[in-house]
Specification:
Blueprint lengths: L1 E3 L1 H13 L6 E8 L5 E8 L7 E5 L2 E5 L4 H4 L2 E7 L4 E6 L12 E2 L1
Parallel strand pairs: 1-6, 2-5
Antiparallel strand pairs: 2-3, 3-8, 4-5, 6-7
Length: about 110
C-alpha cells in the first residue's frame, strides 16, 4: 500500500524518540483542503483504529484510516533535508495534480 524510504523511516524513528506522548507509529490521513483539493495530515499515534491499514517497515508502523486508503495506495513516502527546510515528500500515483508546495494534491 505505502512504501517508506530509509530516510523516511529514520525521520519517523527520530520523531518517535523525541515525543513525550506514547506513540509507536505515524498516522497518515488525507483531508479535503489545500490548493489542489486534498492535503496530507501527519501525526504520531499509538494504536490502530477500526478499518485502519497498518504498514510496518524498518521497525516503524504507519496507520492509514479506511477513507484515506484509496488516496494513498501505491504512494512512496520520503524525507528530505535542504538548506531552507526539511520534510516528508509524497510520490503519489493517485494524484492527478500537485500543488507547488508538495503538501496537497488533486
Amino acid at each position: 500500500m505505502i512504501t517508506l524510504t530509509d530516510s523516511a523511516i529514520a525521520a519517523i524513528k527520530f520523531a518517535l524518540s523525541q515525543t513525550c506522548e506514547p506513540a509507536d507509529g505515524l498516522r497518515i490521513k488525507v483531508e479535503a483542503g489545500g490548493c489542489s483539493g486534498f492535503k496530507y495530515h501527519l501525526g504520531l499515534d499509538s494504536e490502530s483504529r477500526d478499518g485502519d491499514a497498518v504498514i510496518e517497515a524498518g521497525g516503524v508502523k504507519v496507520y492509514v484510516d479506511s477513507a484515506s486508503q484509496p488516496h494513498v495506495s501505491g504512494m512512496t513516502v520520503d524525507f528530505t533535508t535542504g538548506v531552507d527546510s526539511a520534510g516528508f515528500i509524497f510520490d503519489n500515483p493517485n494524484a492527478r495534480e500537485n500543488c507547488a508546495c508538495g503538501k496537497s494534491f488533486g
